[in-house]
Write a structure and sequence with these properties.
The protein is an alpha+beta fold. The chain has helices spanning 50-57, 90-99, 160-170, and strands at 9-14, 21-30, 39-48, 63-66, 72-75, 122-125, 128-137, 146-153.
Length: 171
């Protein structure tokens, strides 16, 4: 809809047909070279979300792309994809069912939730403590911001003996 209104758009989702994750990019086609002329159509291209996973694989620490509802759309942690990074309400689940943005993944019960919440400042993952950082992605979504979430192993900040020394000097 945004494309026909003259607004370029990115729409991440899961296909109802093949259940593959993908990104649809839509841009308006104008009657003339001027973006002030009438929109006569929309050019749409879809790329497979595995390309996002591959880009995230370049990140040495755990990383994910999450929807405004906490759905993990892409990640360098294969077993995170398609799970929730935080609990969702019944209202959120019903809204996702209505939009079918993620096909039928929310129809009966929400997807499984990760054992860690990516909205916390620190999490325990694979027996390590990670700081959690995130940044919004500028994709238009009425539900809120898509986010890139990165985990940073806190042991990389200071060696353990320095962490203990610092902890003892503070107390």
């Amino acid at each position: 809809i945004r494309g026909i209104l003259g607004i370029p758009n990115v729409y991440p989702g899961v296909s109802m047909i093949d259940h593959e994750r993908g990104l649809c990019f839509a841009t308006p086609i104008y009657q003339t070279l001027s973006d002030l002329s009438p929109v006569i159509g929309v050019f749409v291209i879809r790329i497979n979300a595995t390309e996002l996973d591959q880009k995230l694989q370049l990140e040495p620490q755990p990383a994910a792309l999450t929807s405004p509802d906490g759905f993990i759309f892409a990640s360098n942690q294969q077993n995170w994809i398609g799970k929730l990074s935080e609990p969702i309400s019944l209202f959120q689940q019903q809204r996702l069912i209505a939009t079918q943005q993620f096909a039928d993944l929310f129809d009966k019960t929400p997807p499984e939730q990760l054992s860690l919440q990516l909205t916390q400042e620190r999490v325990l993952f694979n027996e390590k403590t990670y700081a959690v950082g995130s940044a919004p992605v500028s994709w238009p979504d009425q539900r809120g911001s898509w986010r890139v979430v990165l985990l940073q192993d806190t042991a990389d900040w200071l060696p353990l003996w320095q962490q203990l020394l610092l902890g003892c000097s503070i107390t």
